[in-house]
Amino acid sequence: MSVAAIVPAAGSGMRLGSPINKALLPLRGRPMLAHTLRVLQEHPAIRWIILVVRAEDRRAVRTLLTRERITKALPPREGGASRAASVANGFAAVPPQAAWVLVHDAARPCLSRRLLDEAVRAAKRHGAVACGLPASLTVKAVDARRTVRLTLDRDSLWFVQTPQVFRRDWFGEALARAPRGLAQFPDDAAVVESAGFPVCMVPGDPLNIKVTTKEDLWLAEAILKSRNGAISHQPSAVSKRRHRTSRAVRLIAER
Ligand code: CTP
Ligand code: MG
Questions:
Q1: Nearest to 217 by CA among 38, 26, 51
Q2: Which amino acid residue places its CA nearest to atom 8 of ligand 1?
Q3: Ligand nearest to the CA of 13
Q4: Three-state DSSP class for 153?
Q5: Cα(51) to centroid(ligand 1), Å
Q6: Ligand 1 centre and the CA of 215: distance in Å?
Q7: 90, 96, 157, 231 - which has most CB atoms within 10 Å?
Q8: Does ligand 1 have an atom closer than 6 angstroms to the CB of 245?
Q9: Helices 83-91 and 168-177 sit at what angle, rounded to 10 degrees?
Q10: Which tens digits make up the pLDDT trace of 66-125?
Q11: Domain parsing of the chain, residue ranges
Q12: Is-above-0.85 flag for pTM?
């Protein structure tokens, strides 16, 4: 399989209240983005990595790519006004030889090799897949006054994660058919669905959290800490920077 991985990292982290793009915040001694990039770099099916970043983060990202030896990275692409627009910008740089496109948020640094394997394998079988978790809580739809309008049937509901993997031709066609108002799509699979292609859900990983709030930063730090080997390729650099990391996380979390 020749997979091109698009990594949208062009947000700002408003909900986290971070002074810098959250994708660049340190976790366990390295920028959040570095954890995801390492897993993608080491997967044999992934041949290209296309990062999508804001203009002001371009330099920091270049340094990161060199320091982390992310040799599969193509020149980073500029971010768009919405996440969907950023992914579309990334897609424009997918090499013609790529038969598959994978999208994974920079804000999900706890991606495991196992989940990545499962997503790629399932994509080969189904053509388009999204990782996710079956809903474990009852979901209610409410109106502006918080009066319940609908209680949804939990058995058919899934919470969606990334990675999501698509046949390149399906994703390309879906994006081409939805050039306007991309922002209306809550995730990449929704673009593919809107073009009529079937998307299959793959059981995701509860630890593959998206860092959105300051509490998530603590969680991500703990999850990465619990994974021996996740940082083992750089033990000396990590031990030197560990103190700085926990201080940075604490400062944000205490805001
Ligand atoms: N993203 C992007 N381009 C945008 C907006 C978001 O590439 N215009 C990326 C983010 O960098 C992140 C992922 O999409 O990796 C998921 O978005 P989210 O968690 O919402 O991150 P932010 O937009 O940075 O956070 P916030 O919404 O709190 O500002
Ligand atoms: Mg956002």
A1: 26
A2: 82
A3: 1
A4: coil
A5: 13
A6: 17
A7: 90
A8: no
A9: 130
A10: 999 999 999 999 999 999 999 999 999 999 999 999 999 999 999 999 999 999 999 999
A11: 3-128+161-199, 213-255
A12: yes
